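Appendix B. One record, verbatim.
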Amino acid sequence: MKNKTLINREISWLHFNARVLQEAMDTSNPLFSRLRFIGIYSNNRDEFFRVRVATLRRLKELKKGKQEFFEYDPSKTLKQIRQIIDIQEQAYMNTYLDISDSLKKEGIHIVGFGDLNHEQVKNVKDYFTESVHPHLFPIMLNGVNDVEGLRDNSIYLVVRLRSSKLNLPDDYALVKVPTRRVSRFFILPRTASNYYILLLDDVIRYNLGEIFLPFGYDTFDSYSIKFTRDAELDLENDLSKSFLEIMAESLKQRKRGVPVRFIYDKDMPAEVLDFLLKKFKINKKDILISGWQYHNFRDFMSFPHIGLPSLWSQPMPPLLHPDLPPYQSIFEVIRKKDVMLHFPYHTFMHIIDFLREASIDPKVRSIKMTLYRAAPESNVINALVNAARNGKAVTVFLELQARFDEQANIQWSEKLHEEGVKVIKTIPGLKVHAKLLLIRRKESDRDVYYTNISTGNFNESTANIYADDSLLTSNQQIGIESGQMFRLFETPYSPPDLKKLIISPYNIRKTFIKLINNEIRHVKANKEAWAILKMNSLVDEVLVKKLYQASQEGVRIRIICRGICVLKPGIEALSENIEVVSIVDRFLEHSRIFTFANAGDPLFYISSADWMVRNLDHRFEVLCPIDDKDIKKELFDMLQIQLADNTKARLLNQPDTEEINVYKKPVEGQPMIRSQKEIYEYFKQRTPGHR
């Protein structure tokens, strides 16, 4: 390791996913919450291989001597990743088995076919015939040479076919488990107070005869496999094609991306594995992973809602914001004062209502919005379409390069265009990650702007589980500058001269450096000097070094970082004044909040940007100052609650310890504080009808 002051970002990400696994292990969590965290851990790991491991493998294959990524040799990093993944895999499977055993005690049995009685076997066979068999289209492997089209991250059963009459040569078939069309979980009829659940994989395994007996085979062995492919898009530079066409073609290529992981059932015989490796043209040992007979535990995020309420997390229904009562114009409210919504504690319906009101208000002339990830059944998009139908000038920047949402966004783009919405073209090489909604209204013969700037997507689905902050304001300077941002999206190489908003790729990093330098000057002048920084990822080396400098000068820095953190806190003479905590709990901590002491007159900002090179140099992001004193107090109170968390907070990258994620424990006599629960109660007490 060359750089002793930074942690490898890939290893730090694995440490983050270990925190997710910790939540699955935590017996104080309800059983189905633990099962959900198993699913999140599995889904995270899949994406890690598709993106990060794929990138490292590309760097490794450059063959220009020892290629380095973030000052680390990719070959060594890949070996480290494999070692950590192997250790985590054992903990992952042990955790699942422990949860499964605990569910049995609650009368919920995830069973195998051998556990079923005669009546249950009949139910399974009937279910297979009626609901599963129509979706199965096996591939006979001996007869095909091209298997590159196998779907990424899907489960396949490799079936070895034999005939007891010895009148047919052995063959192999590939059966895709159709989890996109059929639930992964088949719930058998209840007996007494017990539930019995059979995984779809096993429903198929135990009905293979229904598929292959007509062809003379009567003996079947089946083993599960799964591919993970390189998901990075190779975008060609063909000037004759639109960017939408290039994206569509690249998405087709992704389906045939190079495998970066091949998981196979550890009980698979060697001759079957050898046959598959030859057939799939896989000969690189570092992509092979011996796994269990079941893959894709991400499906457990959608486990059936059964059993007693105590098995599930206690309901925390989203609250109405006290300043936005029903049946009152939102324009009237925010004309008088700024409002900050905090999701998922507040309902996202306030944003839908705001768009709905704008779509039918005769004074509204135009609506402009950025969209990065929309909900599958998006009321946001429905409201924009309705506004266009009502004669409003609607403009949307819909980011086609949003990873893994590219196909959905292409379809949304086409729908919006068909409905008369102006869709601004995606900018190759520069993603628009800023979350902006701008409404222009004609009031007393002048244009008045209403703006919504958020840390998270305009997505009603993720707003139920992502913790984000969303500012509604009638500050005219913010509105004017937001309009300039939309013009910038159409002419990206002519940056505007902004006075209020700070944007990347132009000056967000410079602004943070300036703010940190101010704290350094203040501490030298014996004035109040500190910073509290909340973000998802801290990777940018320039800013990390600046934080180290501030710590060495005596500035106290507290960081709340959910995911990757390459900074090492608590090191004498380097970072002893820095503390980093990560909170992994029921909601995904997604907001970016930055506050600086400023010699006793604290400055507050929210942003869509993490401290990563991609956010600061290769994306359009917004850093927005907060002026309202009540909102400043809310943000500060939330940060203090999170810094006091001693239940779900971990101290990151602690020196002089081999533990990766150390739980922050209460001091003697201190009450247990679970910040997400405390924040919910904080806003509940401020909500009419809940006091």
